Amino acid sequence: MGLESSDMSCFISDFVQKYGGYAVVDGGFATELERHGANLNDPLWSAKCLISSPHLVRRVHLDYLDAGANIILTASYQATIQGFEAKGLATEEAESLLRRSVEIACEAREIYYDNCTKGSWDLVENGNTTRRPVLVAASIGSYGAYLADGSEYSGDYGDAVTLQKLKDFHRRRLQILAEAGADLIAFETIPNKLEAKAYAELLEEEAINIPAWFSFNSKDGINVVSGDSILECASIADSCRQVAAVGINCTPPRFIHGLILSIRKVTSKPIVIYPNSGETYDAQLKEWVKSSGVSDEDFVSYIGKWHEAGASLFGGCCRTTPNTIRAISGVLSNKSSSPFKS
Length: 342
Ligand code: MET
Ligand SMILES: [Zn+2]
Known about the structure:
Blueprint: H1 5-18, E1 23-24, H2 29-35, H3 48-52, H4 54-66, E2 71-73, H5 81-86, H6 91-115, E3 123-125, E4 128-130, E5 135-140, H7 143-147, H8 163-178, E6 184-190, H9 193-205, E7 212-216, H10 230-239, E8 243-249, H11 256-266, E9 271-274, E10 280-282, E11 287-289, H12 296-301, H13 303-309, E12 311-314, H14 322-336
Parallel strand pairs: 1-12, 2-5, 5-6, 6-7, 7-8, 8-9, 9-12
Antiparallel strand pairs: 3-4, 10-11
This protein binds methionine and zinc ion.
InterPro entries: BHMT-like (IPR017226), HCY_dom (IPR003726), HCY_dom_sf (IPR036589), Hcy_S-methyltransferase (IPR051486)
Pfam families: S-methyl_trans (PF02574)
Cofactor: Zn(2+)
């Protein structure tokens, strides 16, 4: 079941408005899978668990729901038909794993709803206690994420990668995920303008009938990682009628405030923010360098400022955990009853 186009662009702003002026996104998915013992040193990264340990994927969704997330992202970030085929899977098997990523998130949501006791419901509406509903966002990582060579943090695909090539790469996965029962598509860690353009054109050409968000990453707080202007990137998202929110993920917390102000200059769509812990990723060593990370307390101390600057959806990306999300959720629910102040 799809939405009319006017409903699509307002889908997230309506949701946020209805449920207290904010929404809580989940945290680092791969990080939490690893904490449960998964070995993700693989070109498929977190998507490897869709093959080897779907129960763990469900567990991680539940961990984030229990922590207060009300938008959960599927394990499909690095799940691509091309990547699964490289592992020897047939095309049909690859496609069914993509669908499975959405089904598992929906199953976790059902389990969570079933387990909810009245006492844990946290929103009062018309005098009745209701719970904040959960949305399932089907994650789509960049072409660079599929390459697994660090180019999702450089945004440099070389001249051979054209708009057409990116569209062809993403087309089938987008079609499948859009029809698998998710509430929205989360295009994450978009490293350059070309890929944003490819997504916008695909949403239009394929007449995708669920809304999407575009989330970029930055390593200087001024531009997206490729050096392309955040203003131009966010403008592409703003012009696309199916895009219901624009934002930043997998970027150090210290860069976020300025990026929100820039995005606000070119769009009035809701802004989604889910930074990483501030640690940096060493693509050669394939590990995170701890030095510059922030504690959960420090991370959460930014939330008020980000909200004031115009963001309304908050979560975490790599190296954040259910504890980070629990802290974010706590701070937001305390503040939602009074005018929001930092
Ligand atoms: C490299 S960014 C990864 C985003 C994805 N949603 C995850 O948390 O695993
Ligand atoms: Zn990340």
